[in-house]
Design a protein that fits this description.
Number of domains: 2
Number of strands: 2
Strand order of the largest sheet: 1-2
Length: 451
């Protein structure tokens, strides 16, 4: 006769080996975030074709890029409560369908500045779901000992590849087919969405929190088939109830310090990252680099960001409590490197420092996303990641604009390096302040609040 036992889902997932179903879901999330990264970078290739036909002033050209980011901000902040209450799977699929429909409509209907911005704003609402919820989903699925590394391969790789694909389509296809080809290619996310409907399960930790036992048993049996017989009669510990206000939960005494610190850090990090990616090519042209080399710096930063993020993720997986210190080290190193460009120049120096900036500044952001997911309980984790990326997107929107304004006021490109380096260093000091606390004071997703 079998004996029923109560199982802690956190422990089950933490002890699992990476099996075929883990890998399948990792590949699926990678492809989903690929379209997020692709869409983030493709507006840069639209501007060249529409500035004159649409009669755009420089400020309007900037808004052309920012319209999608503004939508992302609202989507990232707003989706968390829905995902925490109704489920990760349905919310992620809804975000995908918004992206599918409005990406295709952008190619077909966008004929002037206002129609393009409106369609991009709504597309951004869907995109604001994909990256934060993909990060949340991976964090709740992967074994705890490799959650950062798994997230880098399952989320960051896709986002980085998306940026590369946007560049390839922008350079090689738009001259023959116009800027609309960027969005026709982006609509290839539609068949992927049908695959996601067939494959993507609900998050196991969300199922445990909602006591959806039969679904949880079936999913755990796929993740850990060697224990399928145990799950048939087991009961499961619940992760707790959704708070009435997830924002209030994020700012409760237990989480207030870490939430505010993460929000400040994300704002400064994405301010630096989007200022970096938006202005470095132009600044490098002014420093004497060729056109091809200047725009190649963007690809270099994306490649180095993945390597830097993966290196940092492997360190973070060894000790969760030390993650703030590792993040601070990465941002401090990147900030100092960028500030060095104020005083030194030359092709080799430019190349080396841009590589370091990608490795450290952008690479650390990828790990901050997963650190955020790992810092909150299941019942409001999606809200935590959404708020982090939503507030960070305010920095992303302001970064290129403020840095451009500083150049206009100062009359030179050095303002780019002071602003990016300064933001990165202040972000390092902010997140590093968490590392000065005792390890026991840091919230953990797999540790219940003290009674």
């Amino acid at each position: 006769m079998s004996i029923s036992s109560e199982i802690d889902v956190h422990e089950e997932l933490s002890g699992a080996a990476i099996g075929p179903f883990h890998k399948l879901l990792g590949v699926l999330i990678t492809l989903i975030t690929l379209f997020d990264g692709y869409d983030t970078f493709n507006p840069a290739y639209v501007i060249h074709y529409v500035v004159q036909p649409w009669g755009l002033a420089p400020s309007q050209a900037g808004l052309l890029v920012s319209s999608g980011l503004i939508g992302f901000l609202f989507g990232a902040i707003g989706h968390g409560s829905i995902a925490d209450r109704l489920g990760r799977r349905g919310t992620l699929l809804a975000g995908l369908w918004i992206v599918n429909v409005f990406t295709l409509l952008t190619a077909i209907l966008a004929s002037d500045f206002w129609s393009y911005c409106a369609l991009r704003f709504v597309t951004g609402l869907g995109l604001g779901v994909l990256l934060p919820l993909g990060t949340t989903f991976i964090n709740e699925l992967a074994p705890k000992r490799v959650s950062n590394t798994f997230s880098l391969w399952g989320v960051t790789l896709g986002w980085s590849l998306g940026g590369v694909c946007a560049g390839l389509v922008g350079v090689f296809l738009t001259p023959q087919h116009g800027w609309q080809i960027l969005y026709y290619v982006g609509a290839l996310s539609i068949p992927l969405t049908f695959v996601a409907h067939a494959i993507l399960p609900e998050s196991p930790r969300f199922l445990a929190a909602r006591s959806r036992v039969e679904e949880l048993r079936a999913l755990l049996a796929r993740l850990r088939p060697e224990r399928a017989a145990v799950y048939e009669t087991a009961t499961f510990k619940s992760d707790g109830n959704v708070p009435q206000s997830t924002i209030a939960a994020l700012l409760s005494p237990r989480y207030r310090r870490i939430s505010l610190t993460i929000w400040v850090t994300a704002f400064l990090s994405l301010f630096a990252i989007f200022g970096l990616t938006g202005w470095i090519p132009t600044v490098m042209l002014k420093r004497g680099e060729t056109f091809a080399a200047s725009f190649g710096f963007g690809a270099l930063m994306q490649a180095m960001s993945f390597i830097g993020g993966l290196t940092l993720a492997m360190l973070a997986d060894r000790n969760f409590a030390l993650t703030p210190r590792y993040l601070a080290t990465w941002w401090l190193s990147g900030g100092i490197a960028v500030l060095a460009l104020v005083f030194v120049s030359g092709h080799g120096v430019n190349l080396a420092i841009v590589a370091i900036a990608g490795f450290c500044i952008i690479g650390a952001q990828h790990v901050l996303n997963n650190f955020t997911a790992g810092s909150y309980e299941t019942c409001f984790r999606a809200s935590g990641v959404g708020m982090e990326l939503g507030i960070g997107r305010v920095g992303a929107i302001l970064g290129p604009y403020v840095i451009g304004l500083l150049q206009q006021v100062t009359g030179g490109p050095d303002a780019v390096f002071w602003a990016i380096g300064g933001a990165s260093i202040v972000g390092a000091l902010a997140i590093g302040s968490l590392g000065m606390a005792a390890a026991s004071r840091l919230p953990r997703a797999d540790v219940a609040p003290a009674e």
